[in-house]
């Protein structure tokens, strides 16, 4: 089960990263060019929200079926924090990705409450770009390439 979930999580991450980059760039362009908010912009923001939440669910399943998870019961949190690989996979990566999904969710929710285009793009630009920075900061790049 672990290898299947890991495979799905790894490949879905490419989609999440691509869509998040597209959504961030789209919102920045929309904000700075003062264009009108359209149905396409709404769909991009919504699709980003959906794929990131799916990735979060897959990641949570992977977290609990991962062989790394046993390190908590074997050595405790102190041992996990001493080992950089365990710390990345058990603490840093999950925490930052959960925060990124929270930022995406908050940004999406706040942008829907705005009535005009510029504030909508501003909310999306701030929250989606911050989420992108969080995601890029804690991707286990060594496992990706």
Short description:
With 145 residues, the protein is mainly α. Helix content is 88%, strand content 0%.
Q: How many H/I helices? A: 6
Q: Please report the distance between the alpha carbons of the first and last residues.
A: 22 Å
| Protein structure class | mainly alpha
Q: Which regions contain 5 or more consecutive residues with pLDDT less than 50?
A: none
The helical percent reads over 70%
Compute the CA-based radius of gyration: 17 Å
Number of strands: 0
Overview of the molecule:
It is a single chain. The protein is mainly alpha-helical and 145 residues long. It has one domain (2-144). It contains six helices and no strands. It has helices at 2-33, 39-65, 70-82, 84-113, 117-137, 141-144. The two termini are 22 Å apart. 25% of the residues are buried. The mean pLDDT is 91.
Give the secondary structure arrangement, pairings included.
Layout: H1 2-33, H2 39-65, H3 70-82, H4 84-113, H5 117-137, H6 141-144
Helix pairs in contact: 1-2, 1-5, 2-4, 3-4, 4-5
């Amino acid at each position: 089960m672990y290898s299947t979930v890991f495979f799905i999580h790894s490949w879905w991450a490419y989609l999440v990263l691509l869509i998040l980059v597209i959504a961030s760039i789209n919102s920045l362009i929309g904000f700075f060019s003062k264009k009108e908010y359209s149905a396409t912009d709404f769909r991009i923001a919504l699709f980003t929200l959906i794929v990131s939440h799916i990735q979060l669910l897959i990641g949570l399943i992977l977290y609990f079926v991962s062989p790394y998870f046993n390190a908590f019961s074997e050595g405790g949190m102190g041992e996990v924090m001493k080992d950089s690989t365990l710390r990345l996979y058990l603490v840093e990566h999950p925490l930052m990705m959960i925060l990124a999904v929270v930022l995406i969710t908050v940004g999406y929710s706040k942008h829907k409450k705005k009535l005009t285009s510029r504030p909508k793009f501003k909310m999306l630009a701030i929250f989606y770009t911050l989420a992108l920075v969080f995601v890029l900061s804690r991707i286990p790049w060594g496992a990706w390439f």
